[in-house]
Design goal:
Distance between the termini: 46 Å
Helix content: 40-55%
Radius of gyration: 22 Å
Strand content: 5-15%
CATH topology: TIM Barrel
Number of strands: 13
Number of domains: 1
Number of helices: 18
Bound molecules: 1-deoxynojirimycin
CATH architecture: Alpha-Beta Barrel
Strand order of the largest sheet: 1-2-3-4-5-7-10-11
Largest sheet: 8 strands, parallel, barrel
Shape: globular
């Protein structure tokens, strides 16, 4: 009788990999973060700066995408003004100081300092702005962590093809070289690209985001390949010309849902992780380099079946594999949520497409607590498992959590955000206690901001900003007070202390 009940229960709820549905996680081991561990917050230029054409800034593909097409953004908005950090950085600084943030991850808008993307045409006012930001952060003992590219390509470079053209390798590394020259004396943590998955899949595959290139299963892979080459070239350039003097670190930020299997099938999980994370992580952080062998093999096979002369995802080849392999001092991880995976029974997506190549069905548990956005569920176990996966599969590479956060409608009394932060920060601590080499955590986001296609309808900020006011004051939400306490105590305070 009991075995029957157990059998039914396992059938309904999966085996041990079943993930708890209450946004909590047990604490394991030390209750304090190591002294060197660093807490901060993150933002990106287009989402907060505003001043889209102020003081000589040139247009980016996001300016072009939103201007004159309000129907493309859910509330008809754009990033023209956003939280106005270009004009009001002082307010961000006050918030950072109030939190006690040890670092601030922000991105540089390429077109603010090189309006056409061409490094021979500088815009001094844009350079002055970022010098001011960096200097003020440092005066306040807040380490600048700089993302070089957070989706806002100069329109002028998109005209050459953007990431679909191998020209981007030099265009990007020339830009990066200027950044090292301009700011590298003070910036010691660089992130080349934020979320290549989004840049390439949404921009050049499915094509629902700028630059709207629809070439699934082809354009996305061309973009990944060029982007990895641009990243590798930039890393080598820094090592050759700047590293000795500037002594900074360079990484890349990848986004990943952790993937669980309800049936505990590790092959399913490993294959899915190879496509979703490995496509970018393996060429840079694995011992052998190049794309994951299984991905290369499977896409080559499908390409032959499609009657092509060569694979839609060719190997990077010996020359580039050598440049790209090892071209990261750390891996940046944007973790928000998880999914269950199982192999699809029918071919998925159109032919060809990455969806069809991957052919994995992703699922959620309807009991998982969901945020305002339909893709975010609170699964701290996924973060702990992901960090262990990186420890085991990628030789305990240094990991910086470059984003993690909860989305709602902007309420000041944001208990669910506190629950999310509490459990995810605990997951990071558990992973560290289990030998994972995680060195920093950035909460997304410092302030409410422009959430891309969702405009201002979805809010991630620790500080609320009324986008309609001219003052754009930063008002701390309850979660800001909680995070301040996390930073001050280097621990995961109980939630109740706020009542
Ligand atoms: C990751 C992106 O880097 C960021 O720009 C975005 O706002 C958050 N995800 C939330 O969707």
């Amino acid at each position: 009788m009991w075995s029957l009940i157990l059998f039914v229960a396992i059938g309904l709820f999966g085996s041990e990999s079943f993930v708890k549905a209450n946004c909590t996680i047990e604490a394991k081991g030390n209750l304090k973060f190591p002294k060197k561990f660093n807490f901060g917050v993150a933002t990106s230029a287009y989402q907060i700066e505003g001043g889209w054409n102020a003081d000589g800034k040139g247009p980016s593909i996001w300016d072009e995408f939103t201007h004159n097409y309000p129907e493309r953004i859910i509330d008809g908005s754009n990033g023209d003004s956003a939280a106005e950090s270009y004009r009001l950085f002082e307010l961000d600084l006050q918030a950072l100081k109030q939190l006690g943030a040890k670092h601030y991850r922000f991105s540089i808008a390429w077109t603010r300092i090189f309006p056409t993307g061409d490094v021979h045409l500088k815009n001094q006012k844009g350079i002055d702005y970022y010098n001011m930001v960096i200097n003020k952060l440092r005066e306040n003992k807040i380490e600048p962590m700089v993302t070089m590219y957070h989706w806002d390509l100069p329109v002028a470079l998109q005209k050459f093809g953007g990431f679909a053209n191998a020209l981007i390798i030099d265009q990007f590394s020339d830009y990066a070289e200027e950044l090292f020259k301009l700011f590298g004396d003070r910036v010691k943590t660089w992130i080349t690209f934020n979320e290549p998955n989004n840049i390439c899949k949404a921009g050049y595959g499915t094509g629902y985001a700028p630059p709207l290139i629809q070439a699934p299963g082809v354009g996305d892979y061309i973009c990944f390949t060029n982007l990895l080459k641009a990243h590798g070239t930039t890393y080598r350039l820094y090592q050759k010309k700047f590293a000795k003097k500037q002594k900074g670190k360079i990484g890349i930020t990848l986004d990943i849902f952790y993937l669980f299997s309800k049936t505990n099938n590790t092959d399913d999980v490993n294959r899915a992780m190879d496509y979703n994370l490995g496509l970018l992580a393996y060429p840079i952080f694995s011992k052998s380099g190049d794309f994951p062998p299984i991905v290369l093999k499977e896409i080559e096979k499908s390409s032959m079946e499609e009657g092509r002369a060569k694979s839609r995802l060719p190997s990077l080849g010996e020359y580039w594999t050598k440049i790209i392999k090892g071209s990261g001092d750390f891996i940046g991880i944007n973790y928000y949520t998880s999914r269950y995976v199982k192999p699809a029974t029918e071919p998925m997506g159109e032919n060809p497409s990455m969806e069809r190549d991957i052919n994995i069905q992703m699922d959620v548990d309807p009991n998982w607590p969901r945020a305002k956005a339909d893709w975010v569920y609170c699964i701290p176990q996924g973060l702990e498992s992901l960090l262990k996966y990186l420890r085991d599969e990628y030789n305990n590479v240094e990991v910086k959590i470059t984003e993690n956060g909860w989305v709602d409608s902007g309420e000041l009394n944001d208990d669910n955000r506190i629950r999310y932060f509490k459990s995810h920060i605990q997951a990071v601590l558990n992973a560290i206690n289990d030998g994972c080499n995680v060195t920093s955590y950035s909460a997304w986001s410092l302030v409410d901001n422009f959430e891309w296609l969702q405009g201002y309808t979805e809010k991630f900020g620790l500080y609320s900003v009324n986008m309609k006011s001219t003052k754009k004051g930063r008002i701390p939400k309850k979660s800001a007070l909680y995070y301040k306490k996390v930073i001050a105590t280097r621990s995961v305070p109980v939630f109740e202390y706020l009542y």
